[in-house]
């Protein structure tokens, strides 16, 4: 097992470098960098997107030799100072190598526009995203495992049929569309104002009792957690059902029944451990998938100040240290989670031997 883990750890290096190279190369072709953002704001154009689209006062005609849209009328020395400040006075490959050297040492630099280190910024926003990801994953498992087991036991029944229909509909509904529906129905849209529209806590949260704070916390996260859970619970339910169906048809189940064991003993004493191997071992990857997959849209819709919203705002403002720093950190996290998932398989079922596999 040690050799397998070592090989997987070594594979992280080229994979991570490849991810960073592709994204760094792509960003070079995206118009409206941080310098353009500053120039557009100074010229009253709002942001670089308006300048690029021709909607701002700065315009985009650079035929007179200007390097940046909106730079006309500004001293060339000022533009060069901005280039030095953001590191754009160096060739792209040098900037990339310097960036990777810093990232290897876990030095992610400082945000261009917030005057705070990227690490501190991520730590500040992380609790909100972890809240959504953790609760959504736990609720998905709490619903999916019993439902999947019942569907497997009653495979082909009317219960299995109508629940499959509900699951397919739930899976087909985009998370953001379901979130908007929840806002309209229950957050003061056109119907009832039962839940708050935004934020993770109410004003005066610190003055509430412990029970009051707990209640206020769950009151605020109810809608975003439900919106995040809707698609993941559908996938997990079908995964659980199929895992149990595969095990139910195996010979050892027939043997257990022939020995006179009750259905409960067969199901939970023999089938459960083998069937749940895939479901439980996938918990880390499911959590990361929920964490990254839905956080951007959900956090923006519910005005939650988390990692997803941070990443979206960083891309819009071309805050490259935040964009690349979070990309590096979470790509590394995702690759490590893949190894943890393999270790979970071995922990749950020691019969699995990854050493015999070729990676």
UniProtKB/TrEMBL annotation:
The subcellular localization recorded is: Cell membrane
Report the domain of life of the source organism. Bacteria
Work out whether the entry's keyword set contains Ion transport.
no
**Membrane topology summary:** Multi-pass membrane protein
Q: Where is the signal peptide?
A: none
- Residue ranges annotated as transmembrane are 9-30, 128-149, 161-187, 217-240, 275-302, 322-348
**Domain ABC transmembrane type-1 residue range list:** 126-345
A GO biological-process term? microcin transport
Stored CDD domains = TM_PBP2
Q: Which residues form a coiled coil?
A: none
Q: Which GO terms describe its cellular component?
A: plasma membrane
Among PROSITE patterns, the record links this protein to: ABC_TM1 (PS50928)
Keywords attached to this Swiss-Prot or TrEMBL record, sorted alphabetically, are: Cell membrane, Membrane, Transmembrane, Transmembrane helix, Transport
The record's listing under InterPro entries reads: MetI-like, MetI-like_sf
Record's family? Belongs to the binding-protein-dependent transport system permease family.
- Listed name of the protein: Microcin C ABC transporter permease YejB
The organism encoding this protein is: Halocynthiibacter styelae
